[in-house]
Amino acid sequence: MKIVVGIKQVPETTNVKINEKTKNIDRRGINGVINQYDRHALEAAFEIKAKTNAEVIVMTMGPDDFVVSLQEALALGADSAVLLSDRAFAGADTLATGYVLSKAIQKINDVDLVILGQQSVDADTGQMGPIVAEFLDISQVTYASKIDIADGALHIKRYLETVEQDITAKLPLLLTVTDQANDPKYVNVVEITKSFEKPVITWHATDLNLDDDRVGQAGSPSIVRSISSPKAVAKDNHKLADNPQDAADELVKILKEKNILMEDK
Amino acid sequence: MDQKTISQEILLRMVKSFVKNEVAPYDMEIDHTRSYVNDLLAKVRQNDFLSLMLPKEYGGAGFDGRTTAKVINEIAKGNASLAVTLEGHFKSIDQIVKYGNDELKNEYLPQAKNRIVAFSMTEPSGGSNPMGINSHAEKHGDKWIINGDKIMITNGGLAEIYCVLVKTAPTELSIFVVDNEMEGFEYGKQENFLGLTGVPVGEIVMNNIEVDDSHLLGKVGMGKEIGDSAHDDARVLMGAVLTGIMEHELDLVTDYATHRKAIDTPIIQMQGIQRKVADIAISKETTKLLYQKAAWMKDHGQDYEEEAAMAKAYGSRSAVKAGDDSLQILGGYGYSLDYPIEHLIRDARAMEIAEGTVEKMRTAIALKEAESRA
User: Fold this and answer.
1) Closest CA of chain B from A170, distance in Å
2) What is the least distance, in Å, from the CA of A187 to any CA of chain B?
3) Which domains does chain B show, CATH number per domain?
């Protein structure tokens, strides 16, 4: 069984600055880390690997220094890594990125399962999983919060806003996982050193049989015209009673007044 | 990027995350309970922190002195006690690596992945004056018989393997490696110290412990040289601990001074507060540069005794002063046992004494300065 995990290196800080000219995230001087949801995607792959002895290949698209995150994934337990790096990929939106990722996954061949985090914490679109699944023309299950493998099929739990779903899905499949899916482990200090024995391959645009019009800025239909942070505005502050029972009663009363809770029938 | 840079970045990412989730939230509890709560030591072992600078041939990660010191710095930001426990382990491993014979290394270094190693010099009759000790080893045939009492050992009681300074003749100092499974080894009294309260500091008693020549570090008579080497290692890492303490203090005071208002103005806008905050930042950065320079010199095989002494002497006094300034900025909160500033002062104060007093550091620095001009 072959699993590809797609990861993204994102800024460590939550205080992200935006480049005024490009309207993209300004990554200068900010340390990168593996996107938090992708740590859960990796852990999900490692749990399946423990049961099936699957091969786990970690993949990312970005500049050469993203290799740090790939190496970290190798130290965590991935078997090999692929870096997709080319100046031609610069300025790619989710569509153009998803196109390149899917071409790289096709090049690996015979991939049974693709796992991604539900979204990245910097761009927050949540689009990458569905886009890659469409390009690969395979089934997809997004927001997986519990994942198990048995009899060659995946058994997945999704907790959506109003429903809980139990899904059984056949392979090949693309999954995006939530932060409830598992508890990612820390990198083991000694495994960091050992991880350099594992292969890291770099693929450039010319290695992937790409349609030039679909990569980088040329292949990106979305344009960011402006970007801003929502202002935190405090309003309608109301201190509840100190006693928990009184506070609960008071809260229920307020919620009913605002029609957030329905009156008892 | 080369392999070394990538490894260091991955390691520091992990350490920051580990400190944020597993160490920093328990800082006050560790201080109050005088123990590593949250199964911290089990987590430290599980993630192979004890093997950080252990050479790869003995199953370690083989990180260099600078990286080790940076990790200690990061951990100290979350809890200085844990950083000092690791410092005590690393400086001891370093002496076995440097001076141990192959038999000793093969026996103890693989064990150091899980068993903490300590270095013990002080006795009731002498600390900074090593010739004042009474512990001794006598040769009987091909065995050494060791007797004595070692006190105030960093990680004493927690560590299982000990490098012990003893006399092998009235004016001859040597160091042997013993462990807690040997006949005649006993744990003694635990100290009740003012600061760094998470670190167990205790006594071991040696009653006719029998070892062969392989347990001797270096050669007979090299006790002072090896002791000095351990001190130099420890002082660099203490510079890193002190930097971490001052970074912790800066986090607390800048957050407080930015949000605390007087006359509708955040107090960070007031010059009296700004001077204190700036002084803490200058002290932090100076100590960081000193320990990083000393660690760099160590990694490059240079004599770093003076720089190590400077990192500890300057860093410890500065961190105590920075703690006092921080306390003043936070006012009543700074003076409260329910807030961390007071224990950061107690923690920093320990390092004006441990691993050689600041007075002894100044002697070393002055003599080195004179020597370099002779």
Assistant:
1) 35
2) 6
3) 3-113 (1.10.540.10), 117-221 (2.40.110.10), 224-373 (1.20.140.10)
